[in-house]
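re the bet — no i am not wrong, look at it urself. input seq straight from the record:
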Amino acid sequence: MSDNSFPLHSDPCDLVSAAFILSTDEIDYRSIRETEQGHQHKYADLKIIIASCRDALRKQGIAVRQSLITLDGGNYCVTELLHTSGQWLRTYVPHILGADKNPMQAIGAAFTYGRRYGLLGAINAAPLKDDGGYDLAMAAPRKRDRRPSAPPKSSTMTLNDYGLTVLDVNGWCFANGIDKKWENWPDRERSRFLADLKSGRINKKMVLSGEAAP
C-alpha cells in the first residue's frame, strides 16, 4: 500500500494523536478481554467494542466513522477517528465477501467483520479470540482440487467414453461365441478390452457389427 493511496492520518495529526493518547487511559480494554475470558466460543462483538471506547473517545473530542470505499481496485472497510480539530486517523481492512452466502448477507457479514477488526486496530485493542464469530474462511476463494479425478467406477460409464454400452459388448460377445457377459468378466479382462478400445485394436464399428478382434 502506498501512503498516497492509503493515507493513515491527516497532515498535520498532532491534535488528534494527542487526544487519542489521552483517551487510551479510559478505554475499557478489560471489558473486551473479560467478555472472552473463560468462554471457548465467546468473543467481543462489535457492540461490546464500541461500548468500550465510545465515551472515552468522545470525552477527547473524537468520533468514530466506518464506511466502505474502493481504492486501487480493492474494497475496504475504513475506520476513521475524527477529531473536532478536523484531523483524523484511519485504519483499512480488506472487504472480502463470503462465497457461500446470499450476496447481501455476504456484504453485511464482511462489513461487520471489517468494522470489528478496524475498530480494534484503531483503538489498539487485542482480543483473546481472533475469528470474530464470522465464518469468513469461506470468503476467501476456494482452491480447486488439482488432483486428477478418479476414473468412473461404473463399467457402463467407461464404455460410454467409447460410445458403447454393456448391451453392445454383450452382443459382440454373443457374435464371437463368448459365453460370458460383460457383467461377469473378471476385472483383468475388462481392463484388457478397454485398453484395446483405447489403442484402436478394437473400435466401436467392430463391436456393433460383431467383428472379431484381430
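see?? Strands lie at 62-71, 74-83, 88-94. told u. also The chain has two domains: 14-139, 155-209. so pay up
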